[in-house]
Amino acid sequence: MSAALMADRSSEAWPRFYARIAGGLYLFVIVGGIFAEIMVRGRLVVHGDAAATAHQIQAHQLLYRFGFVVEVLYCACNIPLTLIFYKLFKVVNKNVALMMVFFDIVVNAIESISLLAHFAPLILLGGGSYLNAFTAEQLQAAAYLSIVLFEHGFAICLVFFGFDCFTMAYLIVNSKFFPRFIGVLLAIEGAGYLINSFALFLAPALQAQIFPYFAATAIAEVLLALWLLVMGVNVQRWMEQAAAA
Length: 245
What we know:
The two termini are about 30 Å apart. This protein has a domain of about 170 residues. The protein is built from nine helices and no strands.
């Protein structure tokens, strides 16, 4: 087999191969996020009760730490995921693909910094001698406040992720190698994230009521991850769009 033929086959194979890697990474990010939000914070945080929350975290410290580690890992996974998405979608529109990358960088930076507030309760409730100046009630309140700050930091992160969803939706809809309906669903999800976050900032009581309706829009990301993992991309159409670009 000639070197040229091997190179041609390699260039045709990589979009589907990397798309499937992206699907696996994206699925881990989604599952990791669900685990940390529902199985960890949803189980251990007692809303409005700092003392009960502190007791839950201390009683299930390993679970709380594991939730933190999972979130750190999926933040790390977002880096190669962003690179793969850029390589796949720059053939559609390079400027929009770059905008997607910048939104992803901001999202990951905010989320990574916010994770410090997620870890803070472990320090505040850890019983170090340097904490003796505070009462137990003060430390419990500070630990609960850290979780609230993390949640609001995550809401800020989701504002930028909402715009990231819009850029990704545009790239998918205008691509020839992905189903357009996934792009449409992703745009709806992006709008949901924006509405949910700004509702939290402006009308917290309203946000608590509308959140369950917008949570369902996350099906767009699940479909995208599964499509990438199982189907990859339509390589022939990707090659045609790359040649045209």
